[in-house]
Design goal:
Elements: E1 7-11, E2 14-17, H1 19-27, E3 39-43, E4 48-52, H2 60-66, E5 72-75, H3 85-95, E6 98-99, E7 120-123, E8 126-134, E9 139-146, E10 153-154, E11 157-158, E12 166-168, H4 173-183, H5 192-200, H6 208-211, E13 215-220, E14 223-228, H7 230-236, E15 247-252, E16 257-266, H8 269-286, H9 292-302, H10 315-324, H11 328-340
Amino acid sequence: MLAVGALEGTGTDSYTPTQKAASILDEETVAVLAETVCDFAYFPASDELLVLTDATAPWRRRLFHRKLRPSLQMPLEEPLSGQPPSAIINRHLTANTAHWRPADLVQALAGAGEEPVGDLCPVFQASPVLCRFEEENQRYRVDLTFRSPAASKQGGQAGASPWTVKVDLSGIGGLVGYWRGLAGLAGEPEVLPLLWREVAGPGGALDAAELKKLVVEEAAAPRYVLSLTEEAVLKLRKRPVPLSNEVGIRLEDEQAAALIRIQLRPADDPAAALFALDEAAQLLDSDPAASYQGAIEIAARHSGLAPDSGLMAGPDQLRERMWWLRFYEAVYARRESDDFGYT
């Protein structure tokens, strides 16, 4: 009891209980301090600390065994630079902001010869995948895939291929917020012209008035929906790609890159008719038994349009669109009876 601070001496062979004694009696537990080795991961960009144990980070041994080589170095500014690692860890332990902290972790002790953090921090290349697992609280699981740069020579042998280690970094809300903020740039009005240029290509330029009509909404990160007017759809139809195909976009800043998916949707009935025409073309390409008129009617119903509304194209326009989309075999199959129907 003396060793854990529950009793204090008041004289020869005389002791009195301290305030700690009451908590020990209530919890029926005596905490004995002991030293052990513990691993930590610190992210200076978001000032977040993870305590790595066998329970929380079973991947860490493989990660450390591989001896990741940094891709580059990032400068660190005060107050981080110049601090010993134990001070950074204890700051988070005191503030109770260390993620995955075991209940028995009390303090980080300065090791013999501990050196302060330098002016540079190693930067490791990794690909994060965010998986939302609590919709209400907007919590995410983060799966990081590290890639170690391959050496050009290893003992005279050819350079080794990059390898990957997948880790789960759930709880690093600040870093997740930064990544989500980067992906969220897709919805910013000032980014929309750049986004449209990536989606439509160099031949799909729109004037300022038409650009203002485009609307970007987040569906479920990292997926966004881009609503298009007829004018925008006409620009996109120059690509030999069905309008319903998602478009991959890469957003970058000086520290990271975010890959997002853009789903295209019509914003008006004329645009919906053009989307329906592509749907009919895809239906004919996948179903040898489907007819031109039947495919048009099915696609029109899916788009909420009447086949005879005047907005839907006819079989001739559908055949031309299929040719533009390079559905050659589907077109040839439906011309076979005309081209080779000899008697």
